[in-house]
Amino acid sequence: MTLEIKRLHLASLRGPDGLEWPVHGFVVIHPGGAALVDTGVGGPDQLLTDWRVVNTTAADALAGIGMSPADIGMVVNTHLHFDHCGQNAVFRHAPYFVQATELSRAKTESPELYDWFDFMNARFELLDGDTELLPGLSVITTPGHTSGHQSVVVTAADGSSDVLIGDAAYTPRVYREAPADLPDGQAADRGSWEQSLTRIRSAGSGGRVHFCHHTDVVHG
Ligand SMILES: [Zn+2]
Fold it and tell me: Residue 87 C-alpha to ligand 1 middle, in angstroms?
């Protein structure tokens, strides 16, 4: 059985280069249910104003592919920035799979955001490293953008893979070239960020790489 990947357009925002960037989430349809990778933008009003966000509700985006929030049985957050976990609260019926190191990073680095998304009864399922969540659906640790960043690998029956890389690279150019002049915010730790790109290139070899903030799909 091949897992099916559907991309959601959840928002547009003003990127660090001053241009308009998309914000994507991805639905992975598997036998018995569906997982959502990243939930789009949310947070304190001031934050949304600063980034000039044009938002779409996750419910509206899901309706565009004939689904509703109730169809989502699990959420995976690549990391806990406001444009990746912003609508987690829509899915409070589902567990949120996140690296334990990422949750503690968010708590210390962005306490306001942490307080905002740590609503009552949030069901974080804390991961400690690479984990297979379901047959064919895994996360691999890809620190660098943040210390607890993870990427999602979807493996088809024929062995080909799709990698949903979150913010491990903002754009195909950054992914391919790892240029010296990175966009603001791309790598909190350049050394581990480059090692993570190597991991992703190997996981995505022969498959496809999907970006949160760019519409092109790169063939690995
Ligand atoms: Zn980010």
Answer: 15
- Looking up tokens 């000039």 gives 52
Q: Average pLDDT for residues 165-189, to the nearest whole number?
A: 96
pLDDT digits (tens, 9 = 90+) for 146-162: 999 999 999 988 888 99
- Rounded to the nearest whole angstrom, what is the distance from the C-alpha of residue 157 to the centroid of ligand 1? 31
* CB burial of residue 29 (10 Å; 0-12, 13-18, 19+): middle
Q: How far is the CA of 80 from the centre of ligand 1 (A)?
A: 7
Q: If phi over 0 gives left and psi between -120 and 50 gives alpha, with beta otherwise, what is residue 206?
A: left
Measure 33 CA to ligand 1 centroid, in angstroms.
27
- Asked whether residue 46 carries a pLDDT value surpassing 90, the answer given is no
Task: Tell me the three state secondary structure of residue 15.
Answer: coil
Ligand 1 centroid to Cα of residue 213, in Å, is 10
pLDDT tens profile 85-130 = 999 989 999 999 999 999 999 999 988 888 877 655 678 999 999 9
b/e 126-136 (16+ beta carbons within 10 angstroms → b): ebeeeeebbeb
Q: 98: number of CA atoms within 13 Å, CB side?
A: 26
Ligand 1 center–CA 155 separation, angstroms: 24
CA 152 to ligand 1 center in whole angstroms: 15
